[in-house]
Write a structure and sequence with these properties.
The protein is mainly α. The chain contains 17 helices and no strands. Helix content is 80%, strand content 0%.
Length: 410
């Protein structure tokens, strides 16, 4: 049975990391569904959904660079496990808030800030563990499997979270806390690796090393900024509670299905890439899939049919997974091991800006223009940006096959 596993999953350390990503991805998406429904039910205002996303993002610009420095100086396993323990506590706090019966969004904004702290502190170390645990020749497949682990949990998490929430809201947070505990234990169990990193003097120069590396490596910068715009402008999933309740006239189960659909498409793409790594030129492929993401978003925004809406969200997830794999593999393979924590910290600022600020932007634009207009406009802007990106970052459009990449000099 072991021989049937992908080569990177036969490595004990990466297998444990994969397990942690699976459990935490499942738990996180269950929590997202529950919070989204609770927050929207208080005032029925889409802007409230955006404020929660903004609260989650706020700690990141402050903590990202120090967190990247920690990930490159201390044990990445210990840093990631400490953040995981904080996430277990957050799930317990949400259970207590739900038991008291919230009548204001303020408790959820506070939880969002705490979750932002945990994410900012732990994610650079967690993401930097992959190239530390997996040899270079297996890295492309490992990056795909890392995304697959998250998406497996995400596929079942939102739908099951919606069903459990409809029956008993407290149970969602209890199950999520247990899953986050499993993830915490798996990270702690990763074998300690002998570090090949050389000690560096603590200072501004060391703190900003990841920023400088990205600024001079234009291929990475172009891929990361493109992903920022893609999700910031084009991702409609933050408005899923509005579509579920107001446009598609459903309840928590429909909301869970909407949140699951992108992950179904992403999981299909991830499994495909894990079995057949991309052999096409990565740069042009990235631009095509980002444009496809925007086109699917436009159709979703105009849809009043649940099957069509789910199909478009699945297509957007399929395209987004290919985009994430290209970006993630490029970052992992071009970045020297000694800089992985700091570069991943900067990348995580962009990823979170697109997710959390994207949720705020979606809520604000929806409140001003209407939900459908906001989603259609975002998708159209995404197609236009993808079409213009060859002029903004020509280096990215010339990027070749991922298996031909080698680390850049420090």
């Amino acid at each position: 049975m072991r021989q049937r596993l992908p080569p990177s999953l036969r490595l004990p350390g990466f297998a444990l990391l994969w397990t942690a990503l699976l459990a935490s991805g499942f738990a996180t998406q269950m929590i997202v569904v529950a919070i989204g429904w609770q927050v929207y039910s208080i005032h029925h205002d889409p802007l409230d959904l955006g404020l929660v996303g903004l609260a989650e993002f706020l700690p990141l610009p402050v903590l990202a660079l120090p967190a990247g420095q920690l990930a490159d100086r201390l044990s990445r396993r210990v840093v990631a496990a400490t953040a995981g323990a904080l996430q277990v506590g957050i799930a317990g706090l949400l259970l207590a808030i739900t038991e008291l019966g919230p009548h204001s969004i303020w408790p959820f904004l506070g939880v969002g800030l705490l979750n932002g702290v945990a994410s900012a502190a732990g994610t650079p170390a967690q993401r930097a563990l992959t190239p530390e645990l997996v040899p270079l020749e297996l890295l492309q497949g490992a990056v795909a499997l890392r995304s697959v682990a998250s998406q497996i949990g995400v596929v079942a998490g939102p739908a099951l979270g919606g069903v459990i929430f409809a029956a008993q809201p407290l149970a969602v947070y209890a199950v999520a806390a247990a899953l986050l505990g499993v993830a915490f234990g798996a990270v702690l169990a990763i074998p300690r690796a002998a570090s090949a990193r050389q000690p560096e003097a603590v200072g501004v120069e060391s703190l900003l090393a990841g920023v400088r590396f990205l600024l001079r490596t234009r291929v990475l910068l172009g891929a990361i900024v493109l992903d920022l715009f893609a999700v910031l402008l084009g991702d409609p999933i933050a408005l899923a509670p509005v579509f579920a309740k107001t446009i598609l006239h459903g309840g928590p189960v429909v909301l869970g299905a909407l949140r699951t659909a992108p992950s179904v498409g992403a999981l299909a793409a991830g499994l495909l890439i894990a079995r057949r790594p991309l052999r096409l030129r990565a740069g042009p492929t990235l631009l095509v899939v980002v444009a496809a993401f925007g086109a699917a978003t436009i159709v979703f925004g105009l849809s009043t049919s649940l099957p069509l809406s789910l199909t478009m969200l699945a297509l957007s997830g399929f395209a987004d997974m290919i985009s994430m794999n290209i970006r993630g593999t490029t970052v992992a393979m071009l970045t020297p091991l000694a800089l992985q924590g700091r570069v991943n910290a900067v990348e995580w600022v962009f990823i979170s800006a697109s997710n959390e600020l994207g949720a705020f932007e979606a809520g604000a634009v929806a409140a001003a223009l209407g939900t459908v207009r906001a989603v259609v406009l975002g998708g159209a802007l995404m197609v236009a940006i993808a079409a213009s990106w060859t002029r903004v970052f020509p280096e990215l459009s010339r990027l070749g096959r991922l298996d031909e990449l080698e680390p850049e000099p420090v």
